Amino acid sequence: MADLFFHPGLVLVLGAFLLPFLKGNARSAAILGLPLLALYCLWRLPEGTLWSAHWLGYELAPLAVDKLSRLFATIFLLMALGGGLFALGQKSRLEIPAAFVYAGSAVGVTLAGDLVTVFVCWELMAVGSTLVLWAGGTSGAFAASRRYVAIHLLGGVLLFAGVAGHLLDTGDATFTRMAPDSVAHWLILIGFLINAGAPPLSAWLPDAYPEASWSGSVFLSAFTTKTAVYVLLRGFPGTEFLIWIGLFMIFYGIVYALLENDMRRILAYSIVNQVGFMVAGIGIGTEMALNGAAAHAFSHIVYKALLLMSAGAVLAATGRRKCSELGGLFHSMPVTTICGSIGALAISSFPLTSGFISKSMVTQAAIDGQLLWVWLALAAASAGVFLHAGIKFPWFVFFQKDSGLRPADPPASMRWAMIAFSFICIALGVWPEPLYALLPYAVDYVPYTGAHVLTQLQLLLFSGLAFFVMLPWLKRTLTITLDVDWVYRVALAGLCRAGGRLLRGLGDGLRQALREVGSAVGSDIERQRRPGGLLLRSRPTGAMALWTMLMLLAYLLFYYLH
């Protein structure tokens, strides 16, 4: 039966190696056709284990389908399609093939029924994403990619050690629910959390993603963190400390996004805080919370890609990414402004957008679980999200002070990608039932009740009012925000350089001391060879006879002992 079903992830990965040989319309058709073909293959797959293999005595399942895996694979393939359309005009010949390897391996993780396949696809995903970053073609992108790959190699090593320990402990490779009850499972969990952007290693995300090309960050925003959400959903649902990890990520992202001046770093930090909502939902662990985390991952991929598309369109048109250098672009970029504003409303969970029908499920789960402090924190965070992404990003980039720039809207392929994702944001907000039908558990939730809508509108109104009251303190200024990455980019690097200088100094001193000792010994030996020295000094005949006799006696003694 195995050969009757084709792996949707392989469609993208194999197709990626075909793209460099194509040009013109054939290349464009392949970029749009490969994700559609993969989607067709995915939805032909029945649920269950479809591929199986034996490896070193373990049963592997490289292709296994259930509702959760189909949901994530579907949104990953839609993202590959929308990102490919947006990037059709990208001059780099590397970026889209690398992005398809990246997306295909992310699909491979979601359809993996065993931990070995998860690890292989996980590492392939790191290779693809690093190449997308390299395709940015700048020195900043290259430097960021080195730091990015170092962090992900660390995560990969931890995950490898955890998977190996799990195999030795249990003798079973099946990827199923685990608990942090052993060293191996803790290592697996930490490996997953590093890719989710959890503390203390969250800074790799805002460090790397903004350095990609105008289209590269769109791909980067979708797969790594959401694949981590998927594996946490499958592997560690209901792990309570994830609630607190998630809440920390939410407020960490909000605070840093408010401090930022770079529009793409604002959006990168907002990825961290939105993933925090999902991680908190996974920690709550009820069916409502897990459905909410999965639904929010789906809707977040769409509106975050839309926001980064609008930022990418601005970057491609102006070459600028700092809010202090932008403003007033609605005059000449109306389509980009409208689409970016729809993305901003969706991330703020404005009613009739996708964010509202997904994020509210997580907050409802906190209420149902009588987690008062968690609910209060999530509600306060919703206001914070509106502050930094719902208002700050579109206000400073498209409105407020006129920068005098008058770039035109981007080419048609970029516009249509933004329009399509805007449509999905609104369609899901107005008609959420198709998304709810894809969720792993039956949905008994109505988003549009008077209480839900009124509460959310009150939060948005309050945070909007707070933004304009605090506007003098939120002015666009040239700032450098220090994050945890400062520790390994500056502090640890400085310590390593100081340690290197110390070791070089010690080595030089030791070599100098050895040279001086050797020179002194050589001089002393040379002096003994001169007239009057120990070796050339004249001695009485009797003394020489005595030394000769002693030498012979010593020889005889050694001979007998031997």
TrEMBL record:
Keywords: Cell membrane, Membrane, Oxidoreductase, Transmembrane, Transmembrane helix
Any one Gene Ontology cellular component term annotated for this protein: plasma membrane
The organism's place on the tree of life at top rank: Bacteria
Domain NADH:quinone oxidoreductase/Mrp antiporter transmembrane intervals: 112-378
InterPro entries: ComplexI-like_HydComp (IPR052175), ND/Mrp_TM (IPR001750)
Keyword Transcription regulation set for record: no
One Pfam match: Proton_antipo_M
Transmembrane regions: 6-22, 29-46, 68-88, 100-120, 126-144, 151-168, 183-205, 217-235, 241-259, 266-285, 297-317, 329-352, 372-391, 412-431, 451-474, 544-561
GO molecular function: oxidoreductase activity
Localization of this protein: Cell membrane; Membrane
Keyword GTP-binding part of the UniProt annotation: no
Membrane topology category: Multi-pass membrane protein
Database matches in PANTHER family: HYDROGENASE-4 COMPONENT F, NADH-UBIQUINONE_PLASTOQUINONE
Full protein name: Na(+)/H(+) antiporter subunit D
Organism: Azospira restricta
